[in-house]
Amino acid sequence: FICLVLRDKVGNKIFLLILFPFLIAYSRVYLGVHYPSDVLAGALLGGSIAFVIWRVTKDILQDNLLLTSTY
To answer: CB neighbours of 29 closer than 8 A, spacing ≥ 6?
Structure first.
């Protein structure tokens, strides 16, 4: 989610924002706290929810900007 929001401001350093969650997921599996399928399911669910929220807020903000710019 942060990658989608900050992609214009971060620029070339976006790989750091992508690398951090993968390191956390790997550590969960490595330490035996979660199974790989748990981590994958959580990542897919979290990514899907983040994408939906991003699209909805983006559409709402664009609609608000269009409504306020008609003066």
So the answer is: 35, 36, 39
Q: What is the mean pLDDT of each run of 10 residues along the chain (71 residues)?
A: 65 75 93 95 92 86 66 49
Give the torsion sign (CA, 5, 36, 20, 13): negative
d(CA 60, CA 57): 5
Q: How far apart are CA 42 and CA 50, in angstroms?
A: 12
Model confidence, pTM: 0.67
**Tokens matching residue 35:** 């199974």
* Eight-state DSSP code of residue 11: G
- Positive or negative: CA dihedral 50, 56, 62, 68: negative
